[in-house]
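Researcher: Go.
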Amino acid sequence: MRIPLSWLREYAPVPADATAEDVMAALVKVGLEEEGVHRPTDELTGPIVVGQVLSMEPETHSNGKTVNWCQVRVVPEGQTQTLTGKGIEESGVQGIICGAHNFAPGDKVVVTLPGAVLPGGFAITARKTYGHKSAGMIASVRELGIGDDHDGILVLSTLGLDPELGSDAMELLGLYDEAAEVNVTPDRGYALSMRGIAREYCHATGETFDDFVLDLAAKAPAANAGGLPVTLTDSAPIHGKDGCTRFVTRQVTGVNAAAPVPTWMSSRLRLAGVRSISLPVDISNYVMLETGQPLHFYDADKLDGGITVRRAQAGEKLTTLDEKVRELHPEDLLITDSTGPIGLAGVMGGASTEVGTETTNILIEAARFDEVSIARTSRRHKLSSDASKRFERGVDPELQAAAAQRAVDLLVELASATVEEGVTDTGSTVEPTVIDLPADYTAGRIGIDYTEAQITESLEQIGAQVERTETGYRVTAPSWRPDLTDKEHLTEEIARLVGYDLIPSTLPVAPPGQGLSTEQLLRRRALNALAASGLTEVSAYPFVSEDDNNLWASPVAGETVKSIRLANPIASQQGWMRRSLLPGLTEVLKRNLSRGFKNLAIYETGHVFIPGAQHGSSQIPGLGVRPSDEVLADLNAGIPDQPRHIAGLFCGLVHEETPGAVPHSLDWRDALDSATLVADVIGVKLEVVKGEHQAFHPGRTAALTLADGTVIGYAGELHPKLLAELDMPERTAAFELNFSALLNGRGGPTIATGISGYPATNQDVALIVDADVPAKAVAAALAEGAGDLLEDVRVFDDYRGAGIDEGKKSLAFALRFRATDRTLTADEASAARSSGVAVAADRFGAVQR
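Model: Structure:
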């Protein structure tokens, strides 16, 4: 909300020397948030004066452009020029080149003299152009920064002005005014008006607020038979409330809609962030900003019959003031006449009854619409307006007649209108909210023993009626504060007005002996290990497409996995919650590749979302009451499983090529190493077996399992066809682990074994087995047979070819033996090796080569 200070001073005792910063500092004390200062003089400095065109001589130049060589008087005739500066003539007549043609000799205009600076840092100097010395500029509203019109210069007579020559044009146009901007929270919609801001300023400064709306309400006539017939009907109330609870109409005739907008009004609207359009439209906006009540003006001659407020019917359309044809929804609340819809209630009027410069008779509407209904309509049509912004937050139900009266007064004063006697005021009365506030409740919540006087005075300041009871206070909330519904809200108001600075601050004492949980420690250990090994952590969006979930979350091609669909996705192609981290990582990888990075090793940790048998819950509990155990159980049952995953992607080289070091390409081995590293640092032994996954290379994929055979992830190179489709490097590797499952498989703490100080004995053995026997299984058999003396077994060769029968393969293993209490002899090592070979032979038919 932007607050022109000249406007605020009409309704609050703001000191004459107070700045926008001073006003914001006061409003911050009562809970509003400062946003900024709008001060035209920050970008616009003089000398800028009123001048009169004495003569203008058109000249067409070689570039085809016709300009006017003008003589402009900038001081009253017969007076000496008081302004001094390089290029300012002492005679008071300036020679100025002007490219505009919308003025004539005798017109009074705004002249920016040498030394002036216009918005954008444009300094005015005397310079030679088009064969003349031009000492100044005749300004347009755009050049002055007070409008968008650039069709010509600003002729002051079009504003109804006839100022003295040489007078300060900046003062004339209200450019010395300034505005403070504050952020108004959604629960305090009353502050989206000068009335509300003036009240808050008085709260902050301890002054008494004199509500000007009460005088307007007293002046407004009562409803009578001469008013326009208005019918309020609601066939589909939202959350049990009628869409319109009050509708006031007034009518004026003989309006001069083309009359100029007074500069005091246009300058205030401009500082408040509203563009000046025409006198009737500006009056409507002015009253809305002043009182907080949105108004709508209809060209009364374009109305057909009375007005009906109702919900939209199937197939109805409306062309709104922005010239867009809108398909209406049955929940949309409409303003209609006998021809059909003429306005989208509380959001935007219709083009068919728009007020224009030819309008002479105006019907004024001041209504009160339901907050939820207007909010839904505004969002449904993606149409936000100043009116809908206020209706969504709640408009004072007692304000309509007063705001309509203010609009009538301004139309009579500024547009020569005549008031019609007919007045319509229909709708239901809104009962005030009555709240019981226990005497000790505020002190218990805030920590200050407020006196009875502080409690009573604070609540009366906001406009509430306070009655003392045996147990505390009975408070009737003011009509303009729909946010006050319970004792907590009243407590907040008391704390706010007495002063937040009085609330004691006590830092909580951290409980001893607390730190990271075991899961947090292990997760941090795993992530640090990946980072230390050269990977870079990234964070991707958790929203993916349904095809991505089907591809990455299931190893079987063509299988559809259950996923959670978003009700309001940021993009239609990202409408599902992820079941795998790899879709997001591929997007991050592709983005970095497109920026010129070639060697990439990235990883991410995060939750994936797996729906269960129940999706959501129909038992949504109300506010302020603890749900029952049954309701809580149902709510928990509807929450999807959210295990934590860790995943990584690799492409390019392990490092840049350097002299003496030829790098290898990142491949399946790097992905597998990273996956096993995660398991190793948290103390879990991963079993690596040959795996198959539709997104991975059929011959370069490992399934990662726990000791019980549960598959918790995959590692390997991605499928070449998939990489081609995704436009990714031909050799890209990846891994993904269910980190939650990995933690669950950890078991007890890892016990470190002692290190033997005796030397090891190394021996090799080559075994011929069937080609389909996994090397890992043969190694396990050797380890089992060799017993405790075998410290390590590693396969180092897999040979299939000459000398080996078809369907067979030769596996060579390096065996390391060591005893903890002595130096092993060669015979002891050989005996242990033979025992291992015997088990392999028995289990797999292995033959020593």
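Model: The chain has 23 helices and 39 strands.
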